[in-house]
Amino acid sequence: MKLSESVLPRLPEGIAVPAYDRAALTAGIVHIGVGHFHRAHQAMYLDRLLAAGETDWAIWGIGVRSGDALATRLVEQDCLYTLTAKHPDGSTTSTVIGSIIGYTSAAQDGEAAIARLADPATKIISLTVTEGGYGIDAVTGAFSGRDDERITADLADPTSHRSWLGLVVQGLRRRRDTEAGPVTLMSCDNMQDNGHVTRTVLTGFVDAVAPDLRDWVEANMTFPNSMVDRVVPGTTAEDRERLRTQFDLEDAWPVTGEPFAQWVVQDDFAAGRPPLETVGVDVVDAVEPYEIMKLRLANGNHQASCFFGYLLGYEFVHEAIADPDIHAMLLRYIDTEAVPTLQPIPGVDMNAWGRTVLERFGNPQLRDPITRICEDTSNRIPRFLLPTVRDQLAQHGPVTICAAVVAGWARYAQGTDEQGRPIDVQDPRSAVVTPAARAESTVPGSFLGLTEIFGDLGDRPAFADRFREAFAELESAGTRALVRRLAG
């Protein structure tokens, strides 16, 4: 059976389906970037809320990229899809998610997308465009947009709406002109202070292309911070086949994830909000302590394990976590470098939380490719690892493992592994990162000289010396020797 509204009553036991009337729902949320993470996280929470009887907080998805596969695959199955939680013991729990009730490709129908953003029923515009999609300078934190060709195109021609920024600003202009009311712009991307970043980006873009809109934005919009957490690996052919075998169901765009999920949201909404706290979301006054904990212990551990894991020949994250040397190194990273930089949260044992992270990442059912974690590093390292470095340097603390992780990235970014096999380096700055990584072998300081990524860290001996030591050991003795030393 091909997944659609009509087949829901015929699905076998063992797969949960929406028990609410989707035709009676209103899309109070427009979400830009309906990728795997959104569908396994935010859309899941909203599905729970709709099941509890809410009707005004369904999701309408929007995509901005041309050639958008979701424009056909998801719409053809009435925007339904399956979410499967994979438990460490090998069992699975599958649910058909119904919270997305429509989808528009802005590349194919920009007018429809703008109209949806300007609809008075839309109270929240949410985003998952990845941490690299905001056009923020990694060092200064200011909006520039110069590293994103779609944002650059919209800065040159604001009517082209090739980027989410161009699209949203056109929607906001129409919203103002039609008196559609205030709206919240909520980032659900995995980055620190994502609400503050979103405000900075939007107002910077507005100042550049639509200064007449600035007063309306200040008076009618809020930008809550949020912290999101769930491991969501890419969908595989095996995942699709399992649905066919177990449920006789063909789903063109299923998603999978770990059982664990967490969402912390600042209570700062311009036009009302769904009662998210009733479905397990932490709605709080200040998100920062939670997000710093998550970024440094969860995302930081991903960065600390992925390059060494790849260079040691592992294909999946759980394999790297199971390596005794890597595991011991990560425990030292948690206890000696990351946790001492965290703000206390009442009732939370930071060291224990870090160990829970390793248990989660060690789930063999996720089969999360290490190469996924190795992607986009020039955007991830400055957010996930370098803040720990700077805080430790400020208190004269240890940075040995953090420096070694950066050295591992440099070795990986050279583009060949220890056996001389090519590495497909996926990074938006690969044109400068790879040459600098290769030059490091003969001209020490070349890699940390990328000030757009590292700022002044190349001039800080407490960090730069540890980086050079680790890089030299990688080239002379190899990855295993370095990781074993870091493991203590």
Distance N terminus to C terminus? 54 Å
- Spans with pLDDT under 50 lasting ≥5 residues? none
Going by CATH, the homologous superfamily of the largest domain would be: NAD(P)-binding Rossmann-like Domain
Globally, the shape reads globular
**Which band does the percent of strand residues land in?**
5-15%
Side by side, the strands of the main sheet go 6-3-2-7-8-9
DSSP summary, beta strand count: 13
Q: Structural class given helices, strands, pairing?
A: alpha/beta
CATH architectural category of the largest domain: 3-Layer(aba) Sandwich
User: What name does the CATH topology of the largest domain carry?
Assistant: Rossmann fold
Oligomer description: single chain
Work out the helicity level: 40-55%
Number of folding domains? 2
Provide a quick synopsis of the model.
Belongs to the mannitol dehydrogenase family. The protein has 21 helices and 13 strands.
